[in-house]
Amino acid sequence: MYRCLSCVIVANVCHRGFIQTFCAQKVNVFTQRKMKFLSKEQKLFYDENGYVVLDILSSAELEEISAEYDLIFRNKADQNLDATWQGSWNYTKDEGSNTVVQSIHGMQMHSAVFSRLLLHPRLLDACEDVMGTSNVLLHHTKAHLKPPGKGSPFPMHQDYHYFPFKNHSMVAVFFNLDDSFPENGGLCVYPGSHKLGPQEDVSDNPDYHYLNKDKFPLEAATPLTLKKGQVVIFSYLLVHGSYPNSSDRVRRMFLVQLRAAEDDPVEQVHRSACQGLVLRGVNARRDADITKRISGE
Ligand SMILES: O=C(O)CCC(=O)C(=O)O
């Protein structure tokens, strides 16, 4: 609740992170939220470019996450982990090369290290700033490990096509567990592309989504060179992809997708472990209907 000069006003958060206020005089003004973690420059950079690179983790936190990540991947090495995207974009398959990206979803179901990370106070402060809401819900998590020399690329895409929401509040929080750069399969982006809105999905495979290579060639994207431990937060509308890992170094990442409690899915797709868990604030829309207690809705 925010107080106008002389009267009590009600505050709502719009999808761009501004507080819409209505005072007794029926004045309707937008004011910037008070930042908790981001500087004004970082917030402006995010609004303009659709992503921001942040230093959030301490080296002790990074070490713990990194060791636990390796342990989980080692213990699951005999399972089916390859998540290389399918579809006609996949030039590596056409050329007969055999790339892989090992993927484990729902890392918080494997270890409490990742459950704790989801509640990291500085991380959630940063997410509040970027998302413009105090009510932050988990959508899903995943880890991608691109092995040296044969790590799969990801075609340019918007995460939107996998799980569309009405107000586009969804962000990805991409933790780089290794130094990452183009040669070891690092991330690349089209800065500002989040402002274009949803772009045409040209995939010929219903389980994968990607954009027209002529409109968004991988070669024209901006590579992000990141230090290990750095976190990139980006809008699910940002056009992004990543390079093959042709280096002699591994590229490991952990990714969390978050959304505002005030937003609604366009359709019920991409259900996953712990979806809807309240990480910050409240979910006032959550039903308490006793008949739904088993289904978990
Ligand atoms: O692991 C990567 O390099 C990119 C992953 C990605 O963009 C995605 O899964 O949406």
From TrEMBL:
Enzyme class at the top of the EC tree: oxidoreductase
Keyword Oxidoreductase carried by entry: yes
EC annotation from Swiss-Prot or TrEMBL: 1.14.11.18
Gene Ontology terms for molecular function: phytanoyl-CoA dioxygenase activity
Keywords, in A-Z order: Dioxygenase, Oxidoreductase
One GO biological process term: fatty acid alpha-oxidation
PANTHER family assigned: PHYTANOYL-COA ALPHA-HYDROXYLASE, PHYTANOYL-COA DIOXYGENASE, PEROXISOMAL
Family: Belongs to the PhyH family.
Name under which the protein is recorded: phytanoyl-CoA dioxygenase
Native source species: Hyalella azteca (Amphipod)
Gene: LOC108671571
